[in-house]
Design a protein that fits this description.
heterodimer; A: mainly alpha; 11 helices; about 0% strand; B: mainly alpha
């Protein structure tokens, strides 16, 4: 496979990969690094990419796995403190000074468990079908729906809590 | 879009049971200007999904040069071929000589030529001695 042909196949979904990486890793730079890394891996495996019916699904799964690995090694390493900070702040909505409702939603999304974060991203941002998400996550549709429902409800609760904070 | 329908869709949405089409309806409703006051709290939710969707990857993707990878297999073949030729040549080569040894060899050849010439001449000379032998024999017969 020539490089041009390869890029034609894989570049159309670079933004999707980036957004997914961004959701999982939060950091902009790290997400960009992750996408670059995923493309390198895809290039090395360019022979096998032809075998997949859906290169996009393959790339998304790869990105998800890579980012989760990165997160694991990050937690094991020196960034543990940052993460346990999150774990202790049960009510993020009250802590952040987010005037902007959108920024607030992003903040809340950051606190979701990884799996819910990914499901929410793939469904509400990228608008994948449940069957596609189930396949990507090596799960089933029911589990995806449950995770999605939990994620949406958590965001709603935190959002309402924040909005009512001034009043109650 | 009637409000009751939106409220019902929203409920289904939080249960994770809406279809993509229904979610599109919700997004359209919340991005419109006429959102009912009690639903306005969800506006930022759908607005952030729209915003998240607008994010794009701006960095240039760097891939290794194509030639490098494409030529990899024949580089290996070429390298092993080179080694094979080298080993073959090593075992079959003439023993190499230094200039000193070459000079010595040349001198040896020359000396051999010279000795050969001497011995030839010597043999030629020795042939003449046959007559002398005959003369001696005859002399001995006569002067017994």
């Amino acid at each position: 496979m020539k490089q041009g042909e390869f890029l034609d196949t894989v570049l159309p979904f670079k933004d999707k990969l980036y957004r997914l990486a961004r959701r999982i890793l939060v950091s902009n730079d790290e997400a960009e690094d992750a996408v670059q890394e995923v493309y390198l891996k895809l290039w090395k495996n360019k022979q096998s990419i032809k075998k997949y019916k859906n290169p996009e699904a393959f790339a998304v799964t790869m990105t998800k796995n890579y980012c989760l690995d990165r997160l694991k090694s990050k937690q094991a390493g020196n960034l543990k403190i940052v993460h346990s900070n999150y774990a202790h702040s049960q009510n993020v909505a009250r802590e952040i000074e987010a005037n902007d409702g959108v920024a607030l939603v992003f903040k809340i999304m950051e606190t979701l468990p990884e799996q819910q974060k990914i499901v929410l991203q793939l469904r509400d941002v990228e608008q994948y079908e449940f069957s596609e998400i189930a396949q990507l996550l090596d799960s089933n549709e029911t589990a995806v729906r449950v995770a999605l429902s939990r994620a949406r409800k958590t965001v709603r609760e935190q959002l309402i809590q924040y909005n009512n904070y001034g009043i109650s | 879009m009637e409000l009751a329908r939106i409220e019902q869709l929203l409920e289904t949405y939080f249960e994770g049971d809406t279809t993509l089409q229904e979610e599109a309806t919700l997004r359209a409703y919340f991005s419109s200007a006429e959102v009912a006051p009690h639903l306005q709290q969800y506006q930022s939710l759908f607005a952030s999904f729209a915003k998240a969707q607008a994010e794009s990857f701006t960095r240039e993707i760097v891939l290794p040069k194509e030639n490098k990878i494409a030529s990899r297999w024949w580089v290996g073949v070429a390298a092993s071929l080179l080694v094979a030729v080298g080993v073959f040549g090593f075992f079959n080569q003439e023993p190499s000589l230094t200039t000193e040894e070459k000079e010595a060899l040349a001198a040896f050849e020359q000396t051999r030529e010279a000795f050969k010439m001497i011995s030839q001449n010597f043999n030629e000379g020795a042939e003449e001695l046959a007559y002398l032998q005959k003369f001696n024999e005859t002399k001995n017969k006569i002067l017994k």
